[in-house]
Specification:
elongated, FAD-bd, oxidoreductase, 5-demethoxyubiquinol-8 5-hydroxylase UbiM, 8-stranded mixed β-sheet, UbiH/COQ6, alpha+beta, 9-stranded mixed β-sheet, flavoprotein
């Protein structure tokens, strides 16, 4: 862990190539990819060192595409095979209807890439965070500053600086905000965002069940209530519920046995009788989209750029895609990356990433609006849409193609 920087005149401080605010997996992956280009990187996080080195289990599971897994591995973030649970099929249902839509499948055919028998893997968020943190240890060109918050951004000819809450100042050619969908760094840079508090809560809990899940994810929409089941190792799964606050409070008040009985009923016995394996985790559900992704020598990545609704299941993958696009833009425009914060590279990144995420933002908002609408016309539209989608092989192929995009360019 770095010692707090001395409060000295800026002219006496060496200017870093990049300062990244936020040492989550996206920020850590970006630091590793930039350090591999021989750039000097300082990572800043408000959490103490111990919390980053040994992250708590927050109950969340991350769906990794094959592309994301390859990107993490290429950056040096190693996730053991035994800590991954394969996903072979994904289903979507409208309420209690027994007929749903297959979003993607690896059953009976390949995914366009030899040897793949899954559409992705589920990995605990805790596992990814710890693996990413361990990967940066001992990397010579990465400095880690923990337990400090950024209170202001400064600027000068050819640099920006972050002012920490202990008054230390760190200048860099580029400042990257990787501090989440409510990013304070984004606000300090003067970059506006559309932030929508859905008024819902996200409840997650790992469960055991009596019938096999067949490595299939299920999603059900019942008006304001959204339910998902994510297949883990053996006969275990992660339940994900998006609920109005009043319903979330009711679920939180249930005993483990009562919760399991209610979950078995709500999930329509899809995996038989359920029992609780661990604690119930509760999160407010907020989605966000930055109006602009860059400012003068500032760039947004991960959830600071786009914080998606969990219905998409691709929030982390989109975050890693922002890392890939930023690194590619900086190297293609700077060449030697002599000035990693130059305007041309940032403009290229903003153009390409915004082009990719704007459709995702609007599609996810429209999907959530459609499936949370309880009025009869909306129910009819959902019924017709799923009926059409069941017959639409191109739609399924489009989703499967997205999950199996070409690997990261090197």
């Amino acid at each position: 862990m770095s010692q707090p920087a001395r409060d000295v005149a800026l002219k006496d401080i060496a200017i870093k190539d990049v300062v990244i605010v936020g040492a989550g997996p996206v920020g850590l992956c970006l630091a590793l990819e930039l350090a591999a280009l021989d750039l000097s990187v300082t990572l800043i996080d408000a959490a103490p060192y111990t919390a980053l080195a040994s992250p708590d289990d927050d109950g969340r599971e991350i769906a990794l595409t094959h592309v994301s897994r390859e990107q993490l591995a290429a950056a040096g973030i190693d996730i053991p095979e035994e800590q991954m649970a394969p996903i072979r099929e994904a289903h979507l249902y409208n309420g209690a209807s027994p007929r749903g839509m297959i979003l993607a499948s690896a059953r009976g055919k390949g995914q366009g890439r030899e040897g793949q028998d899954s559409i992705g893997q589920l990995v605990a968020n805790q596992v990814i965070r710890q693996a990413a943190f361990e990967a940066v240890q001992g990397v010579e060109r990465i400095e880690l500053v923990t337990g400090r918050r950024v209170s202001a951004l400064g600027a000068g000819p050819g640099w920006r600086s972050v002012l920490l809450d202990d008054q230390a100042q760190i200048p860099a050619r580029l400042v990257v905000a990787a501090d989440g969908r409510l990013s304070a760094t984004r606000r300090l840079a003067g970059l506006s965002a559309q932030i929508h508090d859905t008024g819902q809560r996200l409840l997650v809990r790992r469960m055991a069940h009596s019938r096999p899940h067949r490595q299939t994810t299920w999603s059900w929409f019942h008006g304001e209530r959204g339910l998902a089941l994510l297949p883990l190792a053996g006969n275990t799964a992660s339940l994900v519920m998006t609920l109005p606050s009043r319903d979330a409070e009711r679920f939180k008040a249930l005993s483990s046995d009562a919760f399991a009985a209610e979950a078995t009923r709500l999930y329509q016995g899809s995996v038989g009788e359920m029992t609780c394996l661990d604690a119930l985790h509760d999160y407010p559900l907020t989605v966000s989209h930055a109006d602009r992704l860059v400012a003068d020598r500032v760039a947004l990545v991960g959830d600071a750029a786009l914080g998606l609704h969990p219905v998409t299941a691709h929030g982390f993958n989109v975050g890693l895609a922002s890392v890939r696009r930023l690194v590619e833009a900086l190297t293609s425009h700077a060449g030697t990356t002599a000035d990693v914060g130059a305007a041309a590279g940032l403009a290229s990144y903003a153009r390409h990433h915004q082009r990719a995420i704007v459709p995702l933002w609007h599609a996810s908002r429209a999907l959530v609006a459609l499936y949370s609408d309880t009025r009869p016309p909306a129910r009819l539209v959902r019924h017709l849409a799923l009926g059409a989608a069941r017959q639409a092989a191109p739609l399924q192929w489009l989703m499967e193609g997205y999950l199996a995009k070409s690997p990261v360019r090197r």
